[in-house]
Amino acid sequence: VLLHERKMMFNLGLRFPEYFKDYNGMTGKIEDVNPNILLNESYFNGLFTYGLSDNFNIYGIVPIVNIHHYSPMIFKEGVGLGDIKIGGDYQLVKLKENNPDYAMSIEIKFSFPTGQYDDLTASDYPTGRGNYGIGFFLNSVHMFNTANFLWTAYYDYRTDYNGIQSGDETGLFLIMQHPFNTSFGNFGIEYGSHLYYKFADEKGGIDLPNSEDYSVDFYLGGWYEYLDDFYFHFGVPHSLYQNGEFFTKYQIIVQFDYLIN
Fold first, then answer.
1. Could you tell me if 197 and 174 are in contact, meaning their C-beta atoms sit under 8 angstroms apart?
2. Partners of 46 in beta bridges
3. Distance between the two ends of the chain, CA-based, in angstroms?
4. d(CA 148, CA 141)
5. For residue 218, which phi and psi values (nearest 5 degrees)?
6. How far apart are CA 68 and CA 75, in angstroms?
7. pLDDT of residue 87
8. Counts for the chain of helices (H) and strands (E), in that order
9. Is 223:179 a contact under the CB 8 Å cutoff?
């Protein structure tokens, strides 16, 4: 559901992954994280959305990356700006006042290689992908008497960088929400799944090893709405199955939304 004309919203998202298993560059396999290796990662996204009309919103995303990987042999660090994104969201089907049960929008998002990816030293971890991307999204919400069902299907096309063709990504989000309206504010719980598949990177028409990625994630979270202007979201996605391995990681996600009238 889009913002109304000339409405604005600011979102601050924070994401903290915690790894049970990770790729081992020495063996070429995903293995249990060595207790002597410390993987500290945090991601911050500032999102600003503006309603050009009731049917069309534009937005921009500014990400900040903070990555530190430590081991007795290796120290790698990536801190700074990630890949900036801008996009637009157009309402195909609006909620009707006499039958508010269904809405759908189509979205396009452009990604720019503003994160550090080249001129890296042995201790530098990239903060971006180094290529341009175009994402296409179809978003929908179905509202029932006591619950809402949301889904998003997407395809993310990525360009090449220094002769390497980055693999595209496609996926699906499925979320079920249960809202509870009280005199202290509006609460809700939500749960669902994220499924994605990233094709392998290519160089000279040959797939690069260990560049393919796929996962089935389960999500559990909730939100609190205060005075129709401020929203607090939290959630814990857990990777149930990734690249042939079970339970590879979980993430803590927190997001603050502020509607500017």
1. no
2. 12, 62
3. 17
4. 7
5. -105, 140
6. 8
7. 98
8. 0, 19
9. no
Per residue in 58-107, pLDDT (tens digit) is 999 999 999 999 888 788 899 999 999 999 999 999 877 655 688 999 99
d(CA 192, CA 237): 9
136 in Cβ contact with 158 (< 8 Å)? no
- How far apart, in whole angstroms, are the C-alpha atoms of residue 147 and residue 129? 38
**Interatomic CA distance for residues 261 and 226, integer angstroms:** 14
DSSP per-residue string spanning 144-175: -SS-EEEEEEEEEEE-EETTEEPPPEEEEEEE
Distance in angstroms (rounded) separating the CA atoms of residues 92 and 139: 10
Give the DSSP letter of residue 101: -
What one-letter code names the amino acid at 74? I
Residue in 217, 216, 212 with CA at minimum distance from that of residue 30:
212
The first and second tokens of residue 40, run together, are 């500290």
Nearest to 210 by CA among 225, 198, 222: 198
The percent of residues above 90 in pLDDT, for the chain, comes to 68
DSSP symbols for 1-41: -PPPTT-EEEEEEEEEEEESEEEETTTTEEEEPPTT-EEEE
pLDDT tens track for 215-261: 999 999 999 987 778 999 999 999 999 999 999 999 999 999 999 87
CA distance 11 to 59: 11
Measured distance CA(259)–CA(48) in Å, rounded:
10
Nearest partner of 51 among 88, 101, 98, judged by Cα:
88
DSSP letter (8 states) at residue 49: E
What's the pLDDT score for residue 85?
A: 98
Return the residue matching tokens 């069902």: 149
Tokens of 171: 């996926």
